[in-house]
Write a structure and sequence with these properties.
One of its GO terms (biological process) is proteasomal protein catabolic process. Helix content is about 40%, strand content about 30%. The protein has five helices and twelve strands. Strands 10-1-2-11-12 form a five-stranded antiparallel beta sheet, covered by helices on one side. A five-stranded antiparallel beta sheet has the order 5-6-7-8-9. α4 runs antiparallel to α5.
Length: about 220
């Protein structure tokens, strides 16, 4: 092989992967996930668009998975990975609960997910951003930010996607530790209005779910 072939081959081989990462970055940004903790609950919201490239397939997609009676997982990213990976996590967490007679805590679940994503990062990398919300009896509500590169952090408030660029300032300004449920819903509606006003992509519908001491529930919106 010539010197030119040896030098140029790696560049040609990496170019498609680079393009794929760039394309996925644009796709992942089109999902909007918002979450924060309140006085005695954690709340997460997600847009309901199912889209790829320039086309929207539907606007009734539920992107918030119920992992167990006191955990919610909001996901955004590649459409196939957003089904496969959360389902894999849920089944393994269910298996752990069956074997040990006790479910994973929210903190343990976040570390388990982070560990799996880190292990697979250079093997069979999944392209999913996540917000994990949960409620534990001795800890209370908690929220964990997990991205597709296996970064994980416990936060009071967080967001994923381009929508986060528009709502982070609202969360910084209006979030407080003793937020009531009514105040949380008002804050979320302010976030939705800001996204619908400023963001170039139409996001008319959002799902809102809450987890507290009584479990998980969906909150209906007055208007969508």
């Amino acid at each position: 092989r010539s010197w030119f072939t040896l030098v140029s081959a790696p560049l040609n081989e990496t170019a498609p992967a680079t393009r794929r990462r760039s394309e996925w970055g644009a796709m992942a940004g089109m999902d909007c996930l918002i979450g924060f903790v309140g006085k005695d609950f954690a709340i997460v919201a997600a847009d309901m668009n199912a889209a790829r490239s320039i086309m929207v397939y539907s606007q009734d997609e539920d992107k918030i998975l119920k992992l167990d009676s006191h955990k919610l997982l909001a996901v955004g990213g590649d459409a196939a990975d957003c089904i496969q990976e959360p389902d894999f996590f849920k089944k393994n967490m269910d298996l752990y609960a069956m074997r040990n007679g006790v479910p994973l805590s929210t903190h343990a679940a976040a570390n388990y997910m982070r560990g799996e994503k880190s292990y697979n990062l250079r093997r069979r990398m999944s392209q999913v951003d996540m917000l994990l919300a949960g409620y534990d009896k001795d800890v209370g509500p908690s929220l964990y930010f997990i991205d597709y590169l296996a970064s994980m952090q416990k936060l009071d408030k967080a967001s994923h996607g381009y929508g986060g660029f528009f709502v982070n300032s609202l969360l910084d300004t209006h979030w407080k530790p003793d937020l009531t449920e009514a105040e949380a819903l008002t804050l979320l509606e302010s976030c939705f209005k800001e996204i619908q006003k400023r963001f170039m992509i139409s996001m008319p519908n959002f799902t809102i779910k809450i987890v507290d001491a009584n479990g998980v529930r969906t909150v209906p919106r007055a208007s969508s």
